[in-house]
Design goal:
This protein has four helices and no strands. The protein is mostly helical.
């Protein structure tokens, strides 16, 4: 099986692949959330292009980054 660039980089850096955090990034739920984040960024980017104000673009980028990190974070089932 041929590895993609990201998997080769992970191997080269020596990141342990048996950790809970790494396994979370390979789950179907994470991949689904990643698709949602990608769609949010596409829509947000189009809105930023339509408004075309540097301050709006900066604040919008920071806000979308914050939402991306929060949405993709693994939630413990406790």
């Amino acid at each position: 099986m041929k590895k993609n660039l990201l998997d080769r980089l992970i191997d080269w850096l020596g990141i342990p692949q048996n950790s809970v955090e790494y396994q979370w990034t390979r789950s179907k739920i994470y991949q689904k959330k990643l698709q949602w984040v990608k769609n949010f960024w596409i829509v947000g980017g189009l809105v930023m292009l339509a408004v075309a104000q540097p301050a709006f673009i900066l604040v919008g980028s920071f806000f979308l980054t914050f939402l991306s990190f929060g949405f993709l974070e693994r939630q413990d089932p406790s």
